[in-house]
Design goal:
The complex is a heterodimer of chains A (about 625) and B (about 230). Chain A has about 625 residues and is an alpha+beta fold. Chain A is built from 27 helices and 16 strands.
């Protein structure tokens, strides 16, 4: 096989059994890899009704066929499992250098089953796979864990691990590789912690082959040429924090738990502020494996209240801990980010859970004696102190560790949790972006932007995808509803395709389109997808498998909804004042376009068409 | 020939090799320069005596010697800009694919070292030493320095036939630039004048250019910094 290595590593943690299986070529081709393949395997191998934190859940690390190649941004893997935060399928994605190393060791996927009796970590050296004792690593932060494991394995080993948050089953704990790349959402780190699996360390010395070397080389150079433009350079200079100024301008920047869409202190947390005052190397980005963009950064805070250093922060983190909590202090935001990276927690959920707690407190539903500090919006010190408490489930941190829905529900107001399927929104208010209304409501892992970023089109002005060019679309109005169901469906399928390939979302965010991906997939794997339609069908197939998983887990059309605030409370001010999310106008059409019945269940006809029966 | 020399002396011009060196270095196009010299040796100095450019006559005569001095300034090599490297390792992948047919950083002849806490990444690749340690230590004479004037490169090369895989050169190179491919020693050979790595460096951190030009640029950029602080 080309692209794919053709090998799956299966690790049974209960009986410490390690086995290497072959990856079925047809399965690989039909689901491409990574997100899609992981979804199919999880759907086939576990009962979707299982308790996510029980040994019966499985944890899948899935790379794509283009991971580890020179495909631009060919650095990603997806963690697929059942989420303890939502109870739905989870598919968290991360880059850095660990996923490529897994390919160099010779594996496409790792499937973890069962639960170890004591804390363990997995050490992979090509085919040599060992389950090692991790008792003395338990309790250590993410960076410490990496350093300690490298000291006893290989100084060039690449590592993915959990921090204390994952060990303590914080519902939104994450898995971090290369000290700063997070498989962030849905609590995948808690699943890893529930299996007593502290880390996966890998050193690979083999290579990844492609089917058509010359053709692949040409395809890569074409993407490089396309990406050699001011947008890419601007993105590399500022990173994702450049988004803040855009969402503020459009009035969709989450402010005080989505109570507003414009933040009076926004200019204090624009991308340039972080670049100029906190980034260690200013306008110079650090790259993941094989990426021509280089959007990461490393920050250092000298303010004694928030002293520390570490990778990031990204836009979502800034939105959640900043305007989301009414905070305009970049140092405090950066500090919250560092704690989350060290402890291994999702910044989006953590930030918006605290934002929700702030609203509950200010409205008098959360008593002072429970939270222990005057948790008003804008209280940066209190926010940072609470973040510290969450990872160890200390005091009020124990309640925060359950996520915003369970927090708000406990205090009698679940409607104040800005979430769908119990997963918190990302930093885009749906009242100003009707496409995001559909996306948040229907994305299989709960409220999520990145698995189907419709707003790339109308907010970021990306009109180079076939999703737009085939329709000769050069402008999309964020507030119209007739076009959003189709756009959302197509964007979700398109994103499922490239999420499954092992390439990074941001390559496509910068405009590379379906033809670019097709060239790389075909030349790289030799699997002859042949056409964009065929390739996108694989994405649609993956999306539908995820949907089937959720349906079997007990989700229904009732769960494809938005909080009352989005549906009924008009935006109080700013450029989209007066708007609400018009989901009921769009959802039936969305189901129809997807080939689902009016209860959101894929019809037999659709399943046959996707070869899922 | 002597007649021509006397002719030149009569003009009062000094037979100053430095002036000639400076003159010929003005010719930006090395190809053009070579053509001119070739023409000189073929046609002879006769025609040119009637022309105005006396210095060219001297170039024709002293061509070979002077050319040695001028050739030194126009050799090309890999120029690594630490200020631009993002640590993506695309160069490692491109190099390994070209030389070993698969994407495997361990087969790459260039290595990037990433320092996340400083957000810096440093490329290291064979420096094509003028007096290579590897060449000195090789017991089978497999390592030689080859100059290709056409491509304007001077490469320290390994003959696969002669290499026995003793790995002494790996010990000798103080920079770690010698690799071992399982049978022979392997190192950067500038891909015969068309380096693969530079095609995939999105940040322009590796360039293939005249070595001296890089230094000139560096001087200039330092000068700009000094100027900026002077006016600050």
């Amino acid at each position: 096989m080309y692209g794919w290595t053709g090998k799956i590593l299966r690790v049974n943690l209960t009986n410490a059994g390690v086995s290497i299986e072959d990856l079925d070529a047809k399965l690989a081709r039909d689901f491409i890899g990574s997100r899609g393949l992981g979804a199919k395997l999880l759907y086939d191998e576990i009962d979707p009704k299982v308790d996510p934190l029980s040994p019966e859940n499985k944890l899948i690390f899935a790379t794509g066929p283009l991971t580890g190649t020179l495909a631009p941004g060919g650095s990603r893997y997806t963690v697929v499992t059942k989420s303890p935060l939502t109870g739905a399928i989870a598919n968290s994605n991360a880059g850095g250098h660990f996923p490529a190393e897994l390919k160099f060791a010779g594996f496409d996927l790792i499937i973890f089953e069962g639960k170890a009796k004591k804390p363990v970590y997995l050490w992979i050296e090509n085919e040599k796979v060992e389950i090692r004792d991790a008792t003395r690593l338990w309790g250590k932060s993410v960076p410490e864990t990496e350093d300690l494991i490298r000291a006893e394995t290989d100084e060039f080993a690449k590592i993915a691990c959990i921090g204390p948050a994952g060990e303590n089953l914080v519902r939104f704990a994450n898995i971090i590789n290369d000290k700063g790349n997070a498989a962030g959402r849905s609590g995948v780190g808690a699943v890893m912690g529930s299996k007593n699996l502290k880390a996966v360390a890998v050193r690979g010395t083999k290579g990844v082959a492609v089917a058509d070397r010359e053709g692949f080389r040409k395809a890569v150079l074409e993407v490089h040429k396309f990406l050699d433009n001011p947008s890419t350079r601007g993105f590399s200079a500022l990173g994702t924090p450049l988004v803040t100024v855009l969402t503020q301008a459009r009035g969709v920047l989450p402010t005080r738990n989505f109570q507003a869409g414009v933040f009076e202190g926004a200019d204090k947390v624009y991308g340039e502020v972080f670049t100029d005052t906190l980034n260690v190397r200013g306008k110079m980005g650090v790259a993941c494996f094989a990426c021509p963009v280089a959007c990461h950064r490393y920050s250092r805070v000298t303010d004694p209240d928030f002293k520390g250093e570490g990778p990031g922060p990204e836009y979502e983190t800034i939105g959640a801990f900043g305007p989301g909590c009414g905070i305009d202090n970049p140092s405090a935001i950066a500090k919250a980010n560092m704690i989350c990276n060290e402890m291994g927690m999702d910044t989006i959920t953590c930030g918006f859970t605290i934002a929700c707690a702030m609203e509950l407190y200010e409205k008098g539903f959360l008593p002072l004696k429970d939270v222990g500090v005057a948790l008003n919006y804008g209280n940066a010190k209190a926010m940072v102190d609470l973040v510290k408490k969450v990872a160890h489930r200390e005091g009020f941190g124990d309640i925060l560790a359950e996520g915003s829905y369970r927090l708000a529900d406990k205090y009698g107001h679940p409607e104040l949790s800005m979430s769908v399927k119990k997963q918190e929104f990302a930093c885009y208010d749906t009242r100003g972006l009707q496409g995001m209304a559909v996306e948040y409501a229907t994305m299989n892992r709960g409220a999520c932007h990145i698995r189907g970023e419709v707003q790339d089109i109308d907010l970021f002005g990306v009109y180079s995808w076939r999703v737009c060019t085939d329709k000769k679309l050069t402008f999309v109005d964020s507030l119209t509803t007739e076009d959003k169901p189709l756009l959302t469906k197509e964007v979700q399928d398109w994103f499922a395709a490239f999420d499954s390939s092992g390439m990074c979302n941001f390559i496509f965010f910068l405009g590379v389109n379906e033809d670019g991906l097709l060239a790389l997939l075909d030349k790289g794997t030799g699997a002859n997808y042949g056409s964009v339609e065929e390739m996108l069908k694989c994405g649609e197939r993956a999306f539908n498998v995820e949907r089937l998983f959720n349906l079997k887990a007990g989700f229904t059309a009732k769960d494809d909804t938005l909080p009352k605030r989005m549906l009924e409370e008009p935006m109080p001010g700013g450029p989209v004042k007066g708007q609400v999310a018009l989901l009921d106008k769009m959802l039936p059409e969305y189901y129809r376009l997807r080939g689902w019945d009016n209860q959101g269940v894929p019809t037999q006809e659709k399943l046959k068409d996707l070869s899922l029966v | 020939m002597r007649r021509y020399l006397n002719y030149f002396k009569q003009e009062g011009g000094e037979r100053n090799p430095i002036r000639i060196y400076g003159q010929s270095a003005q010719y930006k196009s090395w190809k053009l320069e070579r053509l001119r010299r070739r023409r000189l040796t073929l046609i002879g100095s006769v025609n040119l005596l009637e022309g105005k450019d006396w210095d060219l006559v001297w170039v024709g005569i002293k061509g070979v010697v002077m050319a040695q001095i001028t050739r030194r300034i126009i050799m090309k090599g890999l120029s690594l800009d630490v200020e631009k490297c993002s640590g993506c390792r695309a160069c490692e992948l491109a190099c390994s694919m070209k030389h070993s047919g698969e994407y495997n950083p361990l087969n790459s002849r260039i290595r990037i070292s990433v320092f996340p806490e400083k957000a810096y990444a440093i490329p290291v690749v064979c420096f094509q030493c003028a007096e290579p340690w590897c060449q000195k230590i090789c017991p089978s004479g497999a390592i030689t320095t080859k100059t290709d004037e056409e491509k304007r490169i001077k490469v320290v090369e390994i003959s696969e036939d002669k290499c026995v895989g003793c790995k002494m050169c790996m010990l000798a190179c103080p920079f770690g630039n010698m690799r071992f491919d399982g049978r022979n020693a392997a190192k950067c050979n500038l891909c015969n004048g068309e380096p693969e790595c530079i095609s995939f460096c999105a940040k322009g951190a590796i360039e293939f250019k005249e070595v001296e030009v890089s230094t000139e640029r560096k001087w200039r950029s330092v000068a700009e910094k000094i100027l900026a602080s002077h006016y600050a």
